[in-house]
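Fold it.
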Amino acid sequence: MASGLLINVLIFLAAAVLIVPVFKRLGLGEVLGYLAAGVVIGPSVLALVPDAEGVLQFSQVGIVLLLFVIGLELKPSRLRVMRKAVFGFGSLQVSVTTLLLALAAWWLGLSPAAALVVGFSLGLCSTPLVLHLLGERKELQTRHGRHAFALLLFQDLAAIPVLAIVPLLAADALMTNGAAPLLREVVLAAGAFAGLIVGGRFLLRPLFHYAAATRSREVFAGTALLVVIGAALLMELAGLSMALGAFIAGVLLADSEYRHNIEADIEPYRGLLLGLFFMAV
């Protein structure tokens, strides 16, 4: 089992080393190179990796690290400035696209509840794909880059209540279980969200101060990974997005004096795992 996973990872890495540089040289970007490499080694072409599920699950850590690094670059004061773009532009895009796509799905014969779910799902963008493309082109700090990020952030936030409500959209489920399951999920999500923010504000800085005092780069990098994966796991256990937890942890550390050190230690893992994710998709 373990050897099979290692063989798959080896194939992924070999394909990336051979194909991604070609796409970069052609000016097509890394993301297309990773996607093309995944197609070549996947079941539709060479079938070298017929089942990439294990690699995909492992490489999702790359998305978590990407959102953590993005959070590190966004100080809370900057987020407050962006609130109009997040909740104004973001809510407008989600509402309009969900409505139009839901109407189309309803016209094709779906029930109103199913049409709403389909409309919302199809209206979402791929956060890791868009952010990686913007970062690769050095456009995250541009006007359209900030608007794109605001839109993606609102979509991630909007997905939280939608995911909680979807199981209750069936009429029989709502009549049988009532609103209690939804209320429990909302309370659990709110508690995890508040716990992460409060705990992060009071614990993260002393934790990294302790790690820095050891003067060991390995301990410092391990502490950073512990924080990222711990925040992601907390959000997942609460039924929320792992990437959202990592993003919040990054924002909480954005004002820290250790921000640049953390980013430097995380960056190599982020790039490699994110590339594996794009290939496994």
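The chain has two domains: 1-51, 52-280.
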